[in-house]
Amino acid sequence: MTQDPAERAKLERRRQIMKAAKHVFAEAGYHGASINAIIERAQIARGTFYLYFESKSAVFDSILDQAMGELRARIQRIEVDDPSAPPPQVQLREQLVATVDYIVEDRALATLLMKAGHTPDADAAQRLGQFFADVRALIVRALEAGLEIGLVRKCHPDLVAAALLGSVRGVIELLVDAEDPPPVEEVVGELIGVSLRGVLADSITRPR
Amino acid sequence: MTQDPAERAKLERRRQIMKAAKHVFAEAGYHGASINAIIERAQIARGTFYLYFESKSAVFDSILDQAMGELRARIQRIEVDDPSAPPPQVQLREQLVATVDYIVEDRALATLLMKAGHTPDADAAQRLGQFFADVRALIVRALEAGLEIGLVRKCHPDLVAAALLGSVRGVIELLVDAEDPPPVEEVVGELIGVSLRGVLADSITRPR
Amino acid sequence: MTQDPAERAKLERRRQIMKAAKHVFAEAGYHGASINAIIERAQIARGTFYLYFESKSAVFDSILDQAMGELRARIQRIEVDDPSAPPPQVQLREQLVATVDYIVEDRALATLLMKAGHTPDADAAQRLGQFFADVRALIVRALEAGLEIGLVRKCHPDLVAAALLGSVRGVIELLVDAEDPPPVEEVVGELIGVSLRGVLADSITRPR
Amino acid sequence: MTQDPAERAKLERRRQIMKAAKHVFAEAGYHGASINAIIERAQIARGTFYLYFESKSAVFDSILDQAMGELRARIQRIEVDDPSAPPPQVQLREQLVATVDYIVEDRALATLLMKAGHTPDADAAQRLGQFFADVRALIVRALEAGLEIGLVRKCHPDLVAAALLGSVRGVIELLVDAEDPPPVEEVVGELIGVSLRGVLADSITRPR
DNA sequence: CATGAATGAGTCTTCATTCAT
DNA sequence: CATGAATGAAGACTCATTCAT
Predict the structure, then answer these.
(1) What is the pLDDT of residues B105-116, one digit of tens each?
(2) Which of B142, B140, B145 is closest to B157 using CA atoms?
(3) Is the distance between the Cβ of A11 and the closest atom of strand E smaller than 7 Å?
(4) Do B48 and B131 fall within a single domain?
């Protein structure tokens, strides 16, 4: 599973470049990020960059892909039926904490994800869009499942999913810009407080 | 109220250029929008553009400023104390409808507003940021007022405001990308459904 | 000899434009002088300018021509043989005083004349060059005449003429840039002091 | 004393560009000189130019700086008191010969120096002005020293210095434009002939 | 593998000139 | 005659990408 040292060194180099690029992209935006700035930050020569990445957009894509992989690993279907699984609220909270944690831990990445909406790199933009669409679809399915079992109040799942995803993004954006952000636990608490109340059936929120 | 014809023609020209630019910006992003594309779309000569705008960033600024002006006119403090004013929920709904309506009416503009987060036009980016910060502050104040009179449940107003604003943006983004979006009334209905439930004190939502 | 009032008005307009242009040219150089600056200073509309002058270089040419005309009128052959004429030194002094006076009186014009060596207006540059060549030729002829009658010491007239003309230009340049220039009389005195001494035959300067 | 080959090549490139630029500037003036023309003459690509010089004005400045350095090295204080130094006239002649030689050797440079009076590159224009002002100051000091020891006749040093510097420039200008210029030795001879006579005290020129 | 000098397509912007009103 | 809106050629400069060493 491990490669020979040469292979390892190559991967290390790649990571180094990606890290440098991530910061530059975050600070200057896609267009504002010049290859110059990236190679300076990565302490490599111009040609070396093109040895590891085909183009500027290729690094951008790689960064996005990696992040999306990490996020996907943290966001999963919430198991409602499985009695051996923790209760849905707990699952939700755990996933949200893990997700927000990951993003907020890496400010540069967070900036990228939040602000890279409209890059001229159509590919990357579309992929980012796809990622959010995927997450939204996940939420839609969760809502629909909840609807069926009466957990979720009657609503238009697509719209509500968009609203929920938006609220998460809104909060993350706040954290990214904040000087000293509140602890993630608290943030997620509020997020869940608002979301669940906004979504759950009244019979659940105020039972009896 | 109207000026002399020459003045009118000039304003008309300005509008024409701004309209063309708005579409190009929406399609290609700030950087991807070339003066070339703008003047082609506006059917004017290169020099003419610079007769009406100092620079590329100047048009961008103008477009943003105009839009933000329109939006500010639609988003105001919600009067709670004034007995002659409509009930707060109605005010909220009316403002939301007016706002979402305005944005969704103009898809290009909406795209701009939603995606112009990180332009190299620092000035515009900052102003847009300020605009959203202003709106968020408005929501924060509303929440705080609600908290005082027990209308709003105990919460961290800054975070909740960010979540609410985010949910509105999330929904608008959905509408912008949607093939055939649902009627604004319905959208706003869901938005309010989620937001109020998420925010109001339980004693209000489920009065005994 | 006088024209109808309309004609007069036209000429007046021309003069007005030339005056404005002269100042702008002096301040900004040929290239730096924009039609914009000229018409603003002349308080006329863009089109009006082109009613009176074919092009930017045309005004420049006119200004130069006029000045060169005035200068030519002040610089003439020095009569040596004519007994009814004032002595040569007096003629020289008078011409120099008149010339320097005229130039220094009009700082803008002086700046133009001194610094317009290499304008992209090839025509004007060449004409200015011709003017100076003419003056130099005049000096050469004066020197040759002086040589013949033993007034001037043996020398290479072309070179000496160039040196003399250069010294006049050097002094004028100094005056143009000076805060409070010395009186022209004094300036010309020094100029003649240097030039004559440098040129006259020793038998004349220090007669036994 | 020599650097590694890469460094040498870079300096060579720089020189090559400066040489090309010098000719273009001389032929077309500062404004008329387009980057296009420069790179065509230097046989390099557009980007290469900007690899070696920040801007058009930067090359111009470099050319001027280099020339001024060379000239300053040739123009020095004339030692009057030091008995081991050659007599002042000889020093003067040597310096003048070296200076005029250097300028006339490089026609393009000479044209630049003589005609670049009024560039829109304020920096360069000012620097050139400063250079001539420096030289003039040098002459003024020499004259004042001469005055004190009775070598120079009573005169207004500033004016006379301007005249002397002007005469040198006048002569150089002649040489630059001349088809087949006379030998520098002769030129300098005349220059000194005129200048010294014009400046020295009568008791020196015609002793006894 | 690494380097960095060279490339040139593409951008924004200026400004002299024209012409319909 | 006067106006000033419109024009578009031309110019300086940037920067992603290539390739010989």
Answers:
(1) 898 999 888 877
(2) B140
(3) no
(4) no
Distance B55 CA to E18 C1' (A): 24
CA-based end-to-end distance of chain D: 56
Does C141 contact strand F, using a CB cutoff of 7 Å?
Answer: no
- Residue A207's Cβ-side half-sphere holds a number of Cα atoms within 13 Å equal to 3
Domain check: are D66 and D25 in the same one?
no
- In this complex, whether A and D touch, counting 3 or more CB pairs under 8 angstroms, is no
Instruction: Give the model's pLDDT for residue D117.
Output: 65
Q: Cβ D166–C162 below 8 Å, yes or no? A: no
In chain C, what is the straight-line distance between the N-terminal and C-terminal CA atoms, in Å?
A: 57
pLDDT in tens, A57-89: 999 999 988 988 898 888 888 777 788 888 878
Taking the complete model, does pTM exceed 0.90, yes or no? no
What whole-number distance in Å separates Cα of residue A164 and Cα of residue C47? 61
In this structure, the answer to whether residues C19 and C103 fall within a common structural domain is no
- Give how many domains chain C has, as a whole number: 2
The answer to whether the C-beta of D47 is closer than 7 A to strand F is: yes
Helix, strand, or coil (residue A43): coil
Cα–Cα dist D13/C117, whole Å: 31
Nucleotides of E strand lying within 7 Å of any protein CB atom: 1-20
pLDDT score for D92: 84
Q: How far from C103 is each of C1, C74, C98, D144, CA to CA, in Å?
A: 28, 11, 9, 29
Q: CA–CA separation, D179 vs D175, rounded Å? A: 8
CA of B36 vs C1' of E11, distance in Å? 9
Cα separation, D95 vs D135, whole angstroms: 12
- Smallest CA-to-CA distance from A198 within A138, A149, A139 is with A139
Q: D36 is in which domain, residue-wise?
A: 1-53
Cβ distance A118 to B120 less than 8 Å, yes or no, reads no
Strand F nucleotides within 7 Å of a protein CB: 1-20
Q: How far is the CA of C69 from the C1' of F2 (A)?
A: 31
Which CATH number do you get for residue C29? 1.10.10.60
Look at residues A183, A195, D146, D75 and name the one whose alpha carbon lies nearest to residue B198. A195
In angstroms, the CA D86 to CA D92 distance is: 10
Phi, psi angle pair for C181, to nearest 5°: -70, 150
Three-state secondary-structure class, residue B119: coil
Contact C171, D166 (CB under 8 A): yes
Best residue in B56, B113, B118, B172 for a mutation probing chain A (most A CBs within 10 Å):
B118
Return the residue matching tokens 């919600």: B78
A152: β partners: A200
**CA B166 – CA B154 distance, rounded (Å):** 20
**C152 three-state secondary structure:** strand
